[in-house]
Amino acid sequence: MSYEPKDFSRLLGTPGFSDQLLNNHFTLYQGYVKNTNILLEKLDVLLKSDQTATPEYAELSRRLGWEFNGMRLHEYYFENMSREGGKLSDSNGLTKRIVEEFGSYELWEKDFKAVGAMRGIGWVVMYDDPQGCLFNMWVNEHDVGHLAGCTPLLVMDVFEHAFMIDYGLKRADYISAFFNALDWSVVQKRFETRR
User: Which residue numbers belong to the known binding site for Mn(2+)?
Assistant: First the structure.
């Protein structure tokens, strides 16, 4: 099995995101895809040569989660953005669920942005727990902090590479630009097909 990097060049020209920042970010993402494939190949060779009880196999297996989640989280992130952005409709199931969970869309947005503004590097993910709540969660590293069994609906990258070229230390300005580029139709589709 081999993964191919997706083409997100449709995002070039997105207001609030320079093409330099986006192209750098795309290159970083492509590195995660490449490294995921390399690790899968090496693990396959070790498996077929009966070397699964080796330190190399163990370390490569551990590293796979970092590279794979780096690939996949970037795909979610770029997929839930567009040059035009978009509003969340007042008359869909996701809006209803957000209001039920948080009291209003505005409170949900305040919470999501507050999580994104926290010190540190990582991701902000709105998860849907099929057995309960919606959560806005901080994911510290690609492979640490995910909620087991929950579906990522909305993903925002808050590693420095996502904003420093354009915004320096002004993370709040980046978060505002991200919300302007947010394609809610993609998030709504993830919500509708999550189970």
Answer: 25, 74, 157, 161
